[in-house]
Amino acid sequence: MTHTIGAPAERREGREKVGGTARYAAEFPLPGRAQAWPVPAAVARGRVSGIDPAAALAVPGVLDVLTHENAPRLAEPDDATLAVLQSPRVPHRGWFVALVVAETLEAARAGAAAVRVEYEAEQHDVVLGTSHPGLYVPEKANAGQPAVREQGDADGAFQDSAARVDVVYRVPALHNHPMEPHASTARWEDGRLLVHTSSQGAHTVRAVLAGLFELPEESIVVTAEHVGGGFGSKGTPRPDVVLAAMAARHTGRPVTVAFPRRCLPAVVGHRAPTLHRLRLGADADGRLSSLTHEVTTHTSRIKEFVEQAAVPARVMYAAPHRRTLHRVAALDVPSPSWMRAPGEAPGMYALESAVDELADELGMDPIELRVRNEPDVEPDSGRPFSSRHLVECLREGARRFGWDGRDPGPRSRREGPLLLGTGVAAATYPVMVGASTAEARALPDGTFLVRIDATDIGTGARTVLAQVGADALEVPLERVRIEVGSTDLPSAPLAGGSSGTASWGWAVHEACSRLARRLAGHSGPLPERGIEVHADTAGTADAESQWARHAFGAHFAEVTVDTVSGEVRVARLLGVYAAGRILNARTARSQFVGGMTMGLGMALTEGSTMDAAFGDFVESDLASYHVPVHADVAEIEAHWLDEDDPRLNPMGSKGIGEIGIVGTAAAIGNAVHHATGVRFRELPLTPDRVLAGLLAHRTP
Length: 700
Known about the structure:
Elements: H1 14-19, E1 34-40, E2 46-52, H2 54-57, E3 62-66, E4 89-90, E5 96-102, H3 105-114, E6 116-121, E7 140-141, E8 145-146, E9 148-151, H4 154-159, E10 163-171, E11 183-189, E12 192-197, H5 202-213, E13 220-223, H6 239-251, E14 255-258, H7 264-267, E15 274-282, E16 288-300, E17 321-331, H8 344-362, H9 366-372, H10 390-401, E18 413-415, E19 418-430, E20 437-442, E21 448-451, H11 461-473, E22 480-483, H12 500-520, E23 531-536, E24 550-562, E25 568-578, H13 585-604, E26 610-611, E27 616-617, E28 636-640, H14 659-662, H15 664-676, H16 687-696
Parallel strand pairs: 1-14, 12-13, 16-17, 21-22, 25-28
Antiparallel strand pairs: 1-5, 2-4, 2-6, 3-5, 7-8, 9-17, 10-15, 11-12, 11-14, 15-16, 18-19, 19-24, 20-21, 20-23, 24-25, 26-27
Helix pairs in contact: 8-15, 11-12, 13-15
């Protein structure tokens, strides 16, 4: 039997990408293609009272200017962020009020700068605080999670606890900033809409466009063959694809809309800022009696999105008395949305930092405190875990990291002006899976073709799905071809929630297993078209499970803190994960390391400031919004356990795209505390913030 699952197979599209032949959404040179450039609103709230396109139309090469006065009408969308150029209303700064279409990108940009817009500005409110008068408790947080969960008497148990921690943490607004900005190319042919778009799910885009333009879905073809990153911001259609389709219909020509990077923070979602209050109560032996996690965040006035940051506290630790709560204020801000590990990333930063504080309060090793509070079942639901090997991750990580040699005392290691410290944090991420369809075909030349509308957003989905198919067919990997990224293929859910491989792989495995059984009963040569079978996992893959299914991990960090400059450097990062069966060792390591690097950015460099006067995110490009680069990652290791969990899917796999980010920021923050003796409770840990903390706690 040939086994390809688990092997470190090279990515199939790698040569195309490094050779420059892989085409992205804005790179299709269609005959007569025009370029478009958006005009963002210059007020934080109000309405357009007048718009004059004359100067823009006078720019050589400009074809037309779309505004709310002449743009094609759309049906009312479920997602209000897509109702672009439909009314004079401005819900937040950066909302698009016009689109300039021209022969060239340069002409479109010059035309956009020449459009004259007048506004009736209104008072705006963009500042989030725990005492904001507009705060309310929503019915649901993201992913349908209840906004509030209570068990027992959390306040009373907290007051009666021998050891208590009552702390506040703050995570600022964060932005996805994929390498490829959001872009779409659209054209209309004989009443059909053909779209190339940078999206995490082509079928989702098609369904939304069909509703907006009141077309049957079969009249729309959406292709997302190569996607240069998304991190959640491309999980649903964004205004680029709507504007491209509108402009193509208006002009009768193919049109490309590629957003300037400075526009992204306002129109493609962001991780909303979250204010956290954690109250942990424990007995003298460190066993939690009370756990409260309250989250305050913002949403926009046109679309409710509530970051479910208190949800991880419902999974992690045993405590008989608990409360998790979300509150939100609707402000005049851009609509927040998904960003890698929504909920878990900010929530686990706050929770794991507070657990570290409790360990200090008790004088316990932070690993032992976590082990002591391992639950027998999922604390919130009472369901048994399908598998939970967090303790093993912590133990294995401690062994690899050399944790036993650590002096637990803060400020115990120093090299000249540098203070050295180490920290640990746990991580979790839910197992999610959706129904999918796929088809597999055996061809007369001995090869196999697998077709599914999966989306490869840089994760290596093509390669891993081919491995799943080859394993089910029991043939060498090189005999399996795969097609992904188009609505012309069997429908599949979007790439998000670390659910892609589990969802698509289930359907691919089913199709290829059926094909193998059919071939086993076939005699003689194959017909010219081959033999084809289909699979649809509706009703099985998406069936509710009696098990609590989660991936777990442990993160370790070693840092140096410069007492002169306040600069924090991460010398080592190590992660150990329990994520089911690893399907490709090479791409899995890439995903883990990528997530950990993003967590490093969350801890040290990434953060966005809302300008109260202008209602705008100040850090709107990569010159001001700082992401980690190679020089920031000195040594980083990712390992995993051989976890056998038969209650997941036919492959036994869990999602791995997001868990790498979840515990990294807390591990780094805890390491900084160990190095300095100062507890920093607001991210990112920039030199100015760290230096101010060091000076404030300097011993006289």
